[in-house]
């Protein structure tokens, strides 16, 4: 491999957020690596999923959501995968993308998001203010095996991962466990977040561990409002799909053009709602400052009774019933009689009259005419009615900032296999297209398949981008490091001939001898950069030669020789 190829292919192994931004093929390569993983296929044999056999994909997806909530934590710890620096990473990628473009588009390099999204300095928000201003975290995206292995790490009782890891996990599991076709799953990356749009029913967004249906998007609750922040306030940098990708900065797009248009239309439909009473109630729930301008009316034995809207919303907090939903009457039944008034409250809009107005006129608040009509109705009671109507319009209509459609659409090679195929058929298919499909080829590097992959990218990633093991051994001699390694567990987090990187061994306290040998090589390389290092794998034995020999036992049964010349790039 030439240096540029090594850079891309080694990035498929370390999978930092920065690397995925520069090499957008990597996002779907990780999804494919997870689809090949025996871990996710094993979920299908769990009782909670087996009993859903024959049920709809939607039912299975809802069960998958609960499974992920129960089994996985959201992890954004700065030091899980160590630290690097902005100058180092900018220099590393300068031949692929300009530093100015990176700074404008990537959260770690200067992008600070919309003012609404962050009202604090971004470095303080992420906890980076305790470091030098040029220090940034690696924030590597985890495979499902690395997510699962958090159970081995001190302080964790469950699996874990950050937003990109969870998005890749959801995409793979939606296919494997729920039987959702790949072509119906779109990955959406913004500078500060990653989520998926699943084209099922009215559309479903994944958001970290949770799912957001269209109804949930507009329910006005704090958790839904948080789920909206990325699409409401950030530019989408990458859309990744089984047919390819589109990137905000790159002129070439490999995604199928019609698939991209369908996604845009379906996402836009998901993010729009007509103004009607149930949605309006959700708007008031989300914008409490406007509740004081409204009152609720009910019939009590033929006589009207009135209540302040904010009082009724207060009742919601301790109730299972909701305003604007089918349980509304049950909520009213929980209200104390003392909170009702026998006369209409002055200066407040009656919600029943507002409901009749909306049904009669159906104002379209995406247009100037619709806004003017709605404003004329609320103006007598609401100061700055134009601001109120604009806020309501924004609540009803989110306009995603997608990469431009004006791209050079390169004839790509879609990843296509049916939902009823087996894991073995998936792997065989991906193997068969590796030579003509770089995404499929990169998937085997993310999968860590040491039998069918060139070892050069694995070696480069191991000795150049694993700072955790370096930090853990900072005050150790090489002999101390060997003793520390011998005291770790001997099990690999990856099955068969797949191999963990040094920081995975260091973080999870366990590794095969083959993996420990590369950890030792990374430590020697950092402490003695001019030292020639040789690693020889001979089935059950692995030897590291660096001035003297260090021996490890391995169950990977791999054979090969690696030479790392001192003082030179990999």
Q: What is the gist of this entry?
A:
With 570 residues, this protein is an alpha+beta fold.
Characterization of this structure:
There is one protein chain. With 570 residues, the chain is α+β, with helices and mostly antiparallel strands. The chain has three domains: 3-272 and 401-446, no CATH class; 277-396, no CATH class; 456-564, no CATH class. Helices cover 44% and strands 16% of the residues. The chain contains 27 helices and 17 strands. The strands form six sheets. The chain has a six-stranded antiparallel β-sheet, with helices on both faces. The protein is elongated and about 95 Å long. The termini are close together.
Task: Give short descriptive properties of this protein.
17 strands; 570 residues; six-stranded antiparallel sheet; 16% strand; three-stranded mixed sheet; 44% helix; 27 helices; 3 domains; alpha+beta
For the secondary structure, the number of strands is 17
Structural class: alpha+beta
Total separate domains:
3
Strand content: 15-25%
Strand order of the largest sheet: 8-7-6-5-9-10
Taking the alpha carbons of the first and last residues, their distance comes to 11 Å
Kindly report the average pLDDT value: 93
What does the main sheet amount to? 6 strands, antiparallel
Shape annotation: elongated
Number of helices: 27
CA radius of gyration:
27 Å
Flag low-confidence runs.
Answer: 116-120
Q: How much helicity do the residues have?
A: 40-55%
């Amino acid at each position: 491999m030439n240096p540029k190829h090594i850079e891309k292919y080694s990035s498929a192994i370390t999978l930092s957020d920065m690397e995925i931004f520069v090499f957008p093929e990597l996002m779907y390569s990780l999804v494919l690596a997870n689809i090949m993983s025996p871990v996710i296929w094993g979920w299908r044999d769990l009782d909670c999923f087996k009993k859903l056999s024959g049920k709809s994909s939607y039912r299975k997806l809802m069960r998958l959501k609960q499974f992920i909530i129960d089994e996985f934590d959201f992890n954004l710890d700065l030091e899980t995968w160590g630290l690097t620096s902005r100058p180092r990473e900018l220099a590393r990628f300068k031949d692929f993308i300009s530093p100015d473009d990176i700074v404008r588009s990537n959260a770690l390099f200067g992008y600070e998001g919309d003012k609404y999204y962050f009202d604090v300095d971004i470095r303080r928000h992420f906890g980076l203010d305790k470091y030098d201003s040029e220090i940034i975290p690696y924030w590597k995206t985890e495979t499902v095996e690395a997510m699962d292995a958090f159970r081995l790490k001190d302080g964790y009782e469950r699996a874990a991962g950050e937003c990109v890891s969870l998005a890749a996990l959801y995409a793979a599991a939606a296919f494997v466990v729920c039987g959702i076709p790949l072509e119906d799953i779109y990955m959406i990356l913004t500078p500060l977040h990653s989520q998926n749009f699943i084209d099922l029913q009215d559309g479903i967004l994944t958001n970290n561990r949770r799912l957001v249906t269209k109804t949930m998007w507009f329910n006005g609750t704090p958790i839904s409002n948080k789920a909206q922040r990325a699409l409401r306030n950030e530019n989408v940098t990458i859309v990744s799909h089984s047919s390819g990708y589109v990137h905000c900065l790159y002129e070439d797009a490999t995604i199928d053009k019609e698939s991209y248009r369908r996604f845009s239309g379906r996402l836009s439909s998901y993010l729009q709602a007509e103004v009607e009473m149930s949605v309006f109630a959700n708007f008031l729930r989300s914008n409490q400052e406007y509740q004081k301008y409204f009152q609720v009316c009910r019939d009590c034995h033929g006589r009207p009774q009135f209540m302040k809207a904010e009082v009724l919303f207060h009742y919601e907090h301790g109730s299972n019933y909701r305003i604007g939903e089918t349980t509304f009457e049950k909520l009213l039944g929980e209200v104390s009689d003392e909170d009702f008034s026998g006369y209409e409250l002055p200066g407040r809009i009656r919600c029943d009259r507002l409901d009749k107005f909306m049904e009669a006129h159906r104002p379209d608040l995406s247009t100037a005419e619709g806004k003017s009509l709605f404003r004329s109705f609320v103006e007598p009671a609401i100061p700055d009615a134009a601001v109120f109507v604009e806020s309501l319009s924004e609540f009803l209509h989110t306009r995603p900032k997608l990469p431009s459609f004006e791209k050079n659409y390169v004839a790509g090679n879609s990843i296509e296999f049916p939902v009823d195929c087996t894991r073995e058929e998936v792997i065989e298919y991906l193997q068969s297209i590796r030579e003509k499909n770089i995404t499929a080829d990169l998937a085997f590097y993310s999968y860590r398949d040491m039998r069918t992959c060139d070892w050069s990218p694995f070696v480069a990633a191991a000795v150049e981008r694993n700072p955790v093991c370096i930090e853990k051994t900072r005050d150790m001699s090489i002999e101390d490091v060997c003793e520390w390694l011998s005291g770790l567990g001997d099990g690999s987090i990856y099955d068969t001939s797949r191999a963990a990187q040094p920081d995975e061994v260091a973080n999870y306290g366990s590794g095969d001898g083959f993996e420990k040998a590369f950890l030792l090589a990374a430590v020697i390389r950092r402490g003695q950069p001019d030292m020639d290092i040789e690693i020889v794998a001979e089935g059950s034995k692995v030897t590291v030669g660096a001035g003297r020999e260090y021996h490890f036992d391995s169950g990977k049964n791999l054979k090969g020789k690696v030479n790392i010349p001192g003082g030179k790039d990999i």
